[in-house]
Structures are given as structure tokens and as C-alpha cells.
Amino acid sequence: MGVGLLGGSIGLALRNASPKTHIVGYGHRLESLKKASEINAIDAIETDAKKSVAGSDLVILCTPVGTFADLLAQIAPNLARGVIVTDVGSTKRSIVRMAEATLPATAKFIASHPLAGSEKRGVEFSRADLFADQLCILTPTKKTDAAALKRIESFWRSLGMRIASLTPEDHDRLLADVSHLPHLLAAALIAMQDDKGLDLCGKGFLDATRIAGGDGGLWRDIFIDNADNLKAAVGRLKKQLDTVEKMLDHKSVEALRVWLDVAAHRREKTLKKKLKEINPG
User: Fold this and answer.
1) Using 50, 70 and 90 to split pLDDT, how confident is the model at 281?
2) Which pTM was predicted?
């Protein structure tokens, strides 16, 4: 449900992994649905949420987090017995609570967060290889059906993803630091600039602020939904900035060099670890 970048890419990747699967695309914008059909990401177009899930074995919510409550309420009565419902949302606590409270007992919900995407918007930027070698975080709870969980793990692996498991609470806390805060910071770096300064910016600045090009409505919903964890992350960032400010005030040359070197070392170590996860051989 939803045929933007992620929804369209799932369709294309699934087309390669399981060519006989019938893929229904749901959305409000007929233009986007037609584009999805033209690039072969979906087989059928549907603008009615209830009709779009009828008879489905798997339903994937690919719309902004802020739309989930309404969508879940709409589709709940029309879900087939045994259907699995999952999502691609960047927050998990509220989504899991909504799904467990709204969906019928005959439907199985498994919360997913594929860590793949782009600052680009729209189904026209969809790629069949978007998920290859990327990480997908699943957040099962005590209510999660074990068989459904295995099926969702297999589904994401069929698209080329690696799997990790966290509680919804740990997911939202950790992703606030490594995903939501970086987006906020990129937007802040753009917002603080003088226009004359932007005229002089180079590749480093553009690299650092690339993710600020993401959809404002989508990220607004994420920030609001995970506000407590994001505020805590902002607080920790402020402490780091305060530390650097004091070094500059006192011209702490050696301390500043050490601070920068530690950061560089941590980044290099993280990069090597990520590359090893993708290419373990």
C-alpha cells in the first residue's frame, strides 16, 4: 500500500524474486499508480484501501507513518484469514500498538523497517536492487506469531536483505540516534546558512546535507512519532557541541585534535564493520 520509492522498489524486487506473484498497488494519486504500472512494479491499480487488500496473502504498508492509523482501520474488516501485514515505517512503538489493537486476530502483523531508501521521491526512482545487501530490522513482540515471523524474514531475504531483530522500544531509541537525528541535523545545517554561503558550498557540504532533500511530510511524522527519543538525542548532540565550543574558547589545540581523531577512528571502524557485513568473505 503506497507506491512511492519504497513501494515501487519492493514491487520491482519482488518481480525478480517471484515473477508469478500478483502485485496490487494502492494509493490516492492515480498518476503515481500509473507510473508504477508502466515500470512494471505493480500488476493492478486500486484507489480503494478496502478493495486493495481483498484476498491478499501479504499486505505491506508503504505510506507515511502518520497515515497508518487510518489505513489499518480501513483494511481491518477486509483482510483474509491468515494474511500477514507488515510495513516499512521508520518508527515502531506506535505502529505495533496500533496494529495489535486494530487488526483482527486472524491477521498476523510483523513490524519491519528496511534500512534502504534515498532522498529522492517518487515511484520513478524505484530500483529493483534498492534492498540488496541492506539491513531490515524486525521488531517482534510477545504477541508475534512465530510462523508469520519466519515468513517475513524469508520475504525480505528474498529481496536480498539481511535481518536483525530488536524490540520496538530499542528500535525507536537507537534509530533516533543514527537515522532521525542525522536528518534533523542535515536540515538544520541547510536552515542556518546565509544564501551567500550556500553559493560557496562544496561537495563536503552537499554530502553532509544530502538527506535533507527527503520528503518533509514523511519526516515530520517520524520526528513527532519518536519525539521523546529524538529530543534525548538532540540533548546528547548539544553536549558534544558544548564540548567543542569550550575547546575553541580555551584554544585547546591537543584536546581538539584528539576529539577529531577519535571521531575519525570510530567512523572508519564502523565503515569497515559495515563492509564486512555485506561482504563477509
Assistant:
1) low
2) 0.93
